[in-house]
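input
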Amino acid sequence: MKSTFNNPVLIKELKLRFRSFKSFAGILFYLLVLSIFVFGFIFISTNFTGSGFINPEQSVILFGMLTYVQLALILFITPGLTAGAISSEREKQTLNILLTTSQSSFQIIFGKMSSSIVFLFLLLIAGLPLYSLVFLFGGISPGQLLIIFAYLIVTMITIASIGIMFSTLIRKTIISMITTYGAMLFLTGITAFFFMIGMSMVQNTPPSQISPAPLTHFWAMINPIALMMTLITPEMSDSLYELTKIHFPVWAGYLIFYTLITSLCLWIALKKLRVNMKKKK
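output
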């Protein structure tokens, strides 16, 4: 465990990342986007509606907006940070030098991926002061915020592992990045499309002929947008259970599926990192 965190690759990546102006510009852009949504919503709610205050129902809406903005930024930023972790070393012809060091494949993959996750985690922490404004108006509990953050971190780690896997398998960074964004699009857009098709079929079925719809429930379980909807408004989970006739929790299915995807992607990355070197030997 000590050698895992006392990792030269991780230390080098962290120093390079946090000494770069781009990292701080990224944090500034991230907070700027969140601030625009928060203060814009407060301005509209207090001035245009004429109420002069925000009620708990509006606070829940603000919390949901913040959550989806953070989710969108994580989905957009994570592939860009991880999809070139290994392929960029290969393009700069420094990967073979890195592989001849005493660092194991796990330390290399762990160091590359962890440096990106630490930066993304810093983005989440930096947004906490804006989230704290929600508690001033009520409607949201601290426990609900912790659950949302936990699943944002799970989503972040999974997308990072997908990016590392494609960066290991694909030699060109741009192609690796496009492929990672394609996988992210499948997990968000394509699964949402299949889910809506399944829901429309269930709703158009006569009540006497309604049967369990496990496939529709599965698409909801692996979609991060659907998961956040059920976490923000638990009533939507009950509605989903009534329509699909499947009472398996969405959050549990999401956690199981994304844990399996993360484990599989990291296993593939570890196995394929030194393939070319073994062939040369």
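quick obs: Residues 77 and 120 are 8 Å apart (CA to CA).
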